[in-house]
Amino acid sequence: MLVQTLFWQWWLILGVITVSANDVSPPHILFIVADDMGHNDVSYLGSDQISTPNLDALATRGVILKQYYSEASCTPARTALLTGKYPIRTGMQGFPLYNSEDRGIPLTEKLLPAHLKDIGYDTHLVGKWHLGMSSKAFLPQNRGYDSHYGMRGGFIDYLSYHKVEEWPNGTLMFGLDFFDNDIPQITEERYAVDALTDRAIEIIFGHNSSTPLFLHYSSCAPHAGNAGGALQPPLYKKLGSKHIANSNRRLYAEVVRHLDYSVGRLVRALADKGILQNTLIVFVSDNGSPTSGMFRNWGINLPFRGRKQTPWEGGVRVPAFIWHAGLKPNVWDGLMHISDWMPTLLAAAGRRFDEKIDGINQWPSILQGQQSPRKEVLVSVEDRDNGYAALRMGDYKLLIGNFTGIGSAYYGAEFLPNKEKPPDFYDSLASSEVAKMFSTLGITYDYGDVIATRKATLVKQIDTVTDQVPCIPTPNRGCLYNLKKDPAESHDLWLRGQKIVSLMTMRLRSFWSQMVRRGPTELNMDADPALHNYVWLTWLNNVTQESPLNEKEFYKYATPFNMGCECAKSWQNFLCIIRSVLQ
Question: Which of 36, 159, 202, 447 could form an SS bridge with 223, CB 3.0 to 4.6 Å?
Fold first, then answer.
């Protein structure tokens, strides 16, 4: 243990040097994004159902981010990741993009891969984009990535690579959405997760190790392949989750297990290439799981409330960790948001980032196990549909607006029973591919330490009071929770916490005044793959506007005090509530 302690101390010093000195090679970065994975879907966070030994091996020897927040759905999350800004700054909040929308991250935004290229990184995206595809200007290889291999939209069938898109009026479009840069992969027949992993491994082995690498591996898993269909685990593998009673949950577990297997393959490739010891590995989910609904995948967010596309904890508080050989293992309780990755990764790479963004550099705090500099998270502002908002400030979380039709329950308890004993957590971890590769670096596992780390990740519900009728925000009142005591959001403090409510409502009012409105969803028949040999191609080739937003002007800000509160439009609900609280 003394040798191991000295090892961590030496690497910690080196880590600080890497941040501050110019003559030390910046780390390679492997950034892994799971799609629609819930809090209860990885075993290092306590799940006794789904075995994720490679993720467990990385997490328990890395820094587990216990209070990590993403956005509630795909497009806003990826926008925040790559811009370092809340999605409201760019009009990318709310419902995920359709393939047939002429919208994307504004072309005036410089994205994370472009910043990394400025300091010498090779940058590659493998997997999901989902940030604009109406014109070539919006595609990833024109936004800072040297290459893109994967899907441009939000999801695909795991076997046919087709995306089926249904418009609100019932119009259906379908076609291939899988590309090698601009070339449709019409003849591709591999299981989608394997195709992505194979390409990522090719990039690792083909990379010149003297140049830093940013490999953004954005998986399609475990997102449902297409709406209404069964989940699609690999057909060539034996089922390893027979202990799970619910058959749909069992299929979901197989998809997650294969994603975990792919992570093991990536770590082995880094080790075989000889660059694992200087690679920073990040793993996150883009949002909570859709346990129910049109694109349900039977993932589970418990003990948190809510699901994907909701501002409840289950929609936004997701699995996340960061690993590097120089990081001391820790369960870090600091508050962190997905927008923080921009300045944090740049700091880890040795670049000072002084631009004004919402993201905060967490690298020194993570390195040294200190408190997070972040004191609040704008969880959500929805300016269309129902009109609602959520803010975390310190230990408190405020939700206001019209939550009609929003998934506000606790989902998935019926899927949790096992009919047989699950695989042993520690044995699976210790025999994983990652553990084998770590042994080549002298990194080993102690049973007591691993179990203690897993125990430390468990979410503790201190407040034992549960409302008989769960609070659901309406246009007349909101909900307030102390998340330190009540992470399950089960005991509303709205009536007793009016001073806090007023303070947080004023803060939300400030955010509202800064928001770029999303505008109406405008879907274009020119995008129909039937017009392009059933391939989802770009259909606008001469885009010159600075912003792809449908509403070209910034939102003309309304305030709670210069409008009537008939609330004829859904977004006005939010302003009406603000006025009722502040008057």
Answer: 36
